[in-house]
Design brief:
With 57 residues, the chain is an alpha+beta fold. The protein has a domain at 11-38. The chain has 2 helices and 2 strands, in the order E-E-H-H. It has helices at 38-46, 48-56; strands spanning 12-14, 21-23. It has a two-stranded antiparallel sheet with strand order 1-2. Strand 1 (12-14) and strand 2 (21-23) form a beta hairpin. It is elongated.
């Protein structure tokens, strides 16, 4: 089976934790849609209780 390179579109999003603008490459399988890296994802979910207090101030 032949891979279709044009199947994977370029995507632009802002990381939910650090605010970095992320642009994925066209033609590359990249499933990121919310966080720029696994580290940001883990840090975001690790301190979920503390994040509520930051937004309240």
């Amino acid at each position: 089976m032949e891979k279709r390179i044009d199947f994977y579109e370029s995507r632009t999003f802002t990381c939910k934790r650090c605010g970095r603008q992320v642009v994925t490459e066209k033609g590359t399988l990249d499933r990121r849609t919310v966080f720029c890296s696994g580290i940001c994802s883990r840090r975001y979910w690790r301190h979920a209780g503390l994040r509520k207090n930051e937004n309240a101030q």
